[in-house]
Amino acid sequence: MQEFLNNWIPNVMAKLPDFYAAIGDTLLMLIWSGAISFVLGLILGVLLTVTKPDGILENKIVYQILDKLVSLFRSIPFIILLTWVMPLSRVIMGTAIYVRGAIVPLVFGCVPFFTRQVQTALAELDPGLIEAALSMGSSPAEIIFRVYLRESIAAIARSTTITAISLLNLTAMAGVVGAGGLGDFAVRYGHDRNMSDVTNVTVIVLLILVCMMECIGAHIVRRSRH
Question: Which of 116, 81, 117, 74 is nearest to 102 (CA)?
Fold first, then answer.
């Protein structure tokens, strides 16, 4: 088997430690920035939903500020966002490079996207459920947790899957500017040194990660419907 791999992907086999390290860096960026983005995006998505006009906690000022900020950061291309938040990365993480330095721009790039996904998922909820909860005297907190979030698990799971795949793409882009990971590995060896097998294997690994995310997301959606 090893002889077969040496013949088909010689450059990858010669750089296995770097390849494994790149996979580990990508997973670290994905897990840390994904977890932070999930929490922040969920909170912001809920806030936009409940403070919108006719929402259960209608507040035009809060809604307009959050809505404009989310739209602002969504409009900034990620490659520009990477360099723009570098000073903030140095303040928060102590560095603007490698995995630690990539967390802050990845969160800034991912949160607005996931916020809109959550907002859309919650908007799909039957308004009759909200009206029924209000008529029974449920508090805003009870409506948020027992109605909005509980009844939107499947939609939020789909949104999370889409966001996770998008975040994986962002980690590859972050690798180009010094964050490490599979993006850096593919560019440094596959592109710069014309090692096509490195590029091919990197693409295969990314496809496997995407398939795993989609399978996990689909499983959660199926379970939430029963």
Answer: 81
Residue 139 three-state SS: coil
Tokens of 72: 């602002």
Percent helix, strand and coil across the chain, each to the nearest 5: 85, 0, 15
Q: How far apart are CA 167 and CA 210, in angstroms?
A: 11
CATH of the domain at 17: 1.10.3720.10
Instruction: Give me the residue label for tokens 């039957």.
Output: 126
Size of the chain, expressed as the number of residues it contains: 226
**Number of domains making up the chain:** 1
Distance between CA atoms of residues 130 and 135, nearest Å: 9
Tokens of 18: 């770097």
> Contact, 165 vs 213, CB < 8 A?
yes
pTM for this entry: 0.90
Find the domain containing 182 and state its range: 2-224
pLDDT in tens, 104-134: 999 999 999 999 999 999 998 888 888 898 8
Residue 209 vs residues 62, 182, 205: alpha-carbon distances, Å:
37, 12, 6
